[in-house]
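Bug #77: duplicate submission created two jobs. Keeping one. Sequence:
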Amino acid sequence: ANVGDRDLGSVVGDIQKQIAARVDLSGFFVQYGGQFESQQSATRRIALLALVSFLLIFLVLHSHFRDVRIVLQILLNIPLALIGSVVAIWIGDGVLSVATLVGFITLCGIASRNTIMMISHYIHLVKDEGEQFDERMIIRGSLERLVPVLMTAFTAGLALVPLVLAAGEAGKEILYPVAVVILGGLTSATLLDLIVTPVVFWKFGRPALAKALARSSAARKEKESDVDLEAPEPAK
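Kept job's structure:
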């Protein structure tokens, strides 16, 4: 049996409910195979890979920023991206497939990029340019990263537009749902990130920034100490 205008999982779910309610299965069992069975297997595998990807993203960010609070602020952009993805799927064909799940995983890394750019610049302004942690620094950092964030998002989104417009074309069955998820998520993540990230960093970023500055100062002092120890003795 083939399905149309709906995703395979929801159709099989309705069939299972009807059979459980209306068919006496005493001594028998029903097995749902074919594409549905393959989809279930692929979904479980993708869920495992998504968990591994999320863990790796967390570890990579933590190895760079060395602070869980900053990492969590960066990962906050992922739910913002999922909002746009869900809306894009709903506006489109409304089908949740394996391809859309792959798009969700890809989106996690893309959505984190803009937040990394902004928070890294906030830290740079305070640590290297002598800015104080205040509203002026937040506004300056956000404005200075506005153009790079918009341009990178616009470039990535522009490359996905032809795939989104190719709905229903042969050979685009996998690329179309992936492009819809990424384009929708990229749109919401970019727009909401420009509002949410500055507010969240202003509200919760001060302790993390102080820790980063203390660590940087300690590293600088240790480096200067090493240089002094290695300096040659003056000639007599």
